[in-house]
Design goal:
- This protein is an alpha/beta fold and 649 residues long.
- The strands form 4 sheets. A 6-stranded parallel β-sheet has the order 7-6-8-9-11-10, sandwiched between helices. Strands 1-2-3-5-4 form a 5-stranded parallel β-sheet, sandwiched between helices.
- α14 packs parallel to α16 (378-387).
- The longest helix has 22 residues, at 19-40.
- The chain is globular, with a radius of gyration of 26 Å.
Length: 649
Amino acid sequence: MGTLLDRIDSPQDLKGLTEDELDRLAQEIRTLLIRFCRRYGGHLGSNLAVVEATIAIHRVFDLPHDHLVFDVSHQAYTHKILTGRRLAFSDPEHFGKVSGFTSPKESAYDDFVLGHTGTSISLACGLARTRDLTSGTGNVIALIGDGALSSGPAFEGLDWAAEQGGNLIIVVNDNEMSIAENHGGLYRTLAGLRETGGRSDQNPFRDLGLDYRYVEEGNSIEPLVRTFAEVKDTDHPVVVHIHTRKGLGLGQGRGEETGTGSGEPTLPALPAEGRVEANHWQNGIASNGKAPNSRKVYGRMAMQALQSRFPQEPGLVVISPATPLSNGIDPDFRRLAGRHYMDVGIAESHAVAFAAGLAKAGGTPVVATSSTFFQRAYDQIEQEMAINGSAVTLLTFSNGLSGTDATHSGVSDIAMMNSIPGLTCLAPGNGADFLQMLAWATGPARRPVVIRVPGERTLASERAAGLPDTMESRIAGGSRINLDSGSAVGSTTAPQSQPASLSSLSDASPDQTDPWESYRIVRKGRTVALLGLGDMLPLAFQAADSLQAQAGINATVVDPRQYSHPDKDTLETLGKDHNLIVTMEDGQLPGGWGQGIAAFFGSDSTRVLTFGADKEFNDRVPLTDLSQRYRLRTEDMTTAILSALEGKN
């Protein structure tokens, strides 16, 4: 570590540095960020782009009296380093002690927890308005990436900022990239501004009535400091448009580097700088040798299944709101899909409404993104999709419990989706069902459908059963796709089927019947019925094995397949033959699926035991800890079930 950075414990330490020292500090921080992210993972490209801008902001302004709001705050690593959290990036004993996003719990320099996007300008407007209403002082700065400008709230914030007036500085960090490439007409105007040094007649910021400054050298501290000093204490809103280079410092990238000493790990490859999608996120050494995760495996399967139908179905399209690669929508698919693929930018509300319009005209749209981002489109899912009966299919990724930060948790998707009337909610327990559900939803269903993409338990179960990760390999190898996902945990024989024809369900005529309406009993037993929704099905089999081993109970295992509403016929049958009904869901219990099952039985003598998560935010809590807290481990479930049978709970 460089000696300059060792002396920086707060922004005040920047005030006395010379221009040369500030430049040296920027290089030390850039080196630190690359070293840290290469070992421990992180948002690398966006942070490398704003090193100089962050230093310049802290040099000119007086935080925390002045306020800085990031958008998205995954580009706040340099800000954290400069505001007393340096050791979290330089000292292994402190790694993991700060979030990857801004957090008021960590520092007075952070005003908000921000992990989604497009809201910085509105938040800054609120801070500035209260300052003015209370005769306060200070500057309010919003730092927003160009990719975030495609978000609806960003447009709304810009519009209101021009109306509100007063001191507000909006720094647009234009590195010519979103998470992937930028999409939308706005980016042609940004390109025109870059090409003309900010003098283009087509200036969306000026057109809204905002003052505007342009800094071409957005990775040079001196012009940034000069411009920020000029707009400091402004009495009106001003946009400072800075041109930066994403991933600056990565050069052409590097290959893997084997550790030089005993026990030294292999360092992952580094991507190139610039407009390179791969530099958005850098995997750390913990990812060495790891196979692709469930998002990429099942996402690629879904894209392969849809791609084969494109030549015959001109209206079949895939829509991604800016996060394609994470969900298996890789560059090869995008290239081959051509007009059948659309990245609409970070615009989930538009994506769903756009899809509803496509469906109304006879198209077959599929919208794919993380469940946490579908929260941003709840109104469109209810209004434009469900009320209108629009034939839109949503693929929700990253569902359920995880050890991620609170802003990216997928734990509330079941409660969110199953509260909407007219929305068919599917939760496949294996890859074969997932593909069949997708074929049905984009074929004869012609209704609003949401499909929970299988998660890590399902993927581990199928890998343990010997199933390959790609659809072609499964079909080419003649693999029998086991509909009993629990077989991988080593215990059961259950119905099996060949992979569904990619067109068998999608080619059918429109039909109002729902092949997933009924729960599927995959192991018939007695006394206890274990209902494992979606990714919890493997855990249901594990619990069944545990009950057999510990108490000789041959439990029934049920694959519900859908969480739209209770399957009354199956539940009534189970209620007659079993003393205890157990529901397992990878989501929050309040408002969730299991509570609906419990409500169905009501005052009936049949007892219901529900397993799921509490209604709370969790920030980077390890998944093992959450599983223990919520009794989602096999041993905890077994103990609770046996206690319930004995009338102890």
